[in-house]
Amino acid sequence: MGGYTFYPDKPISQYKKSDAGLIVSIILMWGIGVGTLFVCSSAYCGKVFGDELLLVKRQFFASAMGLGGLLFFAFAPLPKIRKILPLLMLVCVVLLLATFIPAFNEERNGAKRWVKLPFFRFQPSELAKFVVILYLANFFDKYQKEKDLEERSVFPAVMVMCLFVILIFAEKDFSTGMFLFLVCLLLFFISGIKTLWLLPMAVIGLPALAMMIVWEPYRMERIAGYLHPEQFSQGVNYQTNASLRAIGAGGFWGQGIGNGLTKLNSIPEVQADYIFAGWTEAMGFVGVALYFIVLCVFAYRGFKCSFMTPDRFGAIGTFGCMASIFFQSLANVAVVCGAIPSTGIPLPFFSAGGSSMIVTLCMCGFMINAARGDVDYAEDYFNEDSYDDKLEVLNEAGVYERL
């Protein structure tokens, strides 16, 4: 398994205590996100729908559902989460397949990414990110426990990953599929799997990626627009250029909340993927610095928890959830600033869209759960080992003193 380990060196007195820094950073990220959504969407919603708070109300509704998911994943014992994982995977696959059924899907700009549910539209690819992370965490945990080296194989994990990625690609959600694939590769690496397994993925994946980019003209146009921005200023680069003007208008201190934010009017659908431009124009460089401070504290607490939790499933799952949220945030900001081609990936906690908010809060709940470090679970988890082996492993995990 290589030299990687997620076992903690954590005092026994700290077990079963929630990570206050992680919880506070989650609340701050959510609060800043909802406030920014109001700033960016109020004028648009008032003009188009006659209700300035329409998108904010929808975000609160999604946040309420996400809070339910957060509480479930924060307090459900980790063994219970592992037991319901097959059901979660089945539900996710069914929802992904439902996007291809006209009676259930909703198509926008040629993409079929949404499923019509009784009270709202849901994007299954967002749920797939969370489900696949949990599956890989569970798989790599079992992989490590397998004593017979000849029986060890990552083929099932590769197949499951490819299944979900292909279904997402088929929805014409290239950005989410590619992002999920990269997160999965990161989990393969940090789990200690021999890097030799990554070679076939690269040999197959890179040509497939190139073919998918060439296959869709709009993807080629995005790359061309990134490489030659002056030639596509009124086309594919229109949103990015308007976003850069809004960022520049923010200056050091920002325009202030409720003081016009005129540049936002020129950014189509600013409340979605380009919402960070709204926060920057309102709050300026100071606001950007504040956002990155909160984001880095959030990431630090999450990644630290992944290395402190006493069981491998919770550790890898927490690492994957935090990596997904953190790197997605960086990717979105990079798009808004014109540093990378447009991707269509939302900004967690900020962008309008209930699916992203619900799944992000569920991920946060899982991280809070793992951060508590359930010692009882750690003891039960090793009940298949001999007594001496159990004491040795639990000693490495920092829980020997309790025994």
Give a description of the structure.
The chain is an all-alpha fold and 403 residues long. The protein has 14 helices and three strands. Helix 4 (124-145) runs antiparallel to helix 11 (312-336), helix 5 packs antiparallel against helix 6 and helix 11 runs antiparallel to helix 12. It is globular, with a radius of gyration of 22 Å.
Please outline what is shown here.
The protein is 65% helix and 3% strand. The protein is mainly α. The chain is globular, with a radius of gyration of 22 Å.
Keywords:
disordered N terminus; globular; 403 residues; mainly alpha; single chain; three-stranded antiparallel beta sheet
Task: Spell out the helices and strands N to C.
Answer: HHHEEEHHHHHHHHHHH
**What fraction strand?**
under 5%
**Rg for CA atoms:** 22 Å
What's the total number of strands? Answer: 3
Helix content: 55-70%
As laid out across the biggest beta sheet, the strand order is 1-2-3
Q: Number of helix segments? A: 14
Shape: globular
The overall pLDDT, averaged over residues, is: 81
Distance between the termini: 27 Å
Structural class: mainly alpha
Give a quick account of the main beta sheet: strands, pairing sense, barrel closure: 3 strands, antiparallel
Give the low-pLDDT segments.
1-5, 7-15, 375-391, 393-403
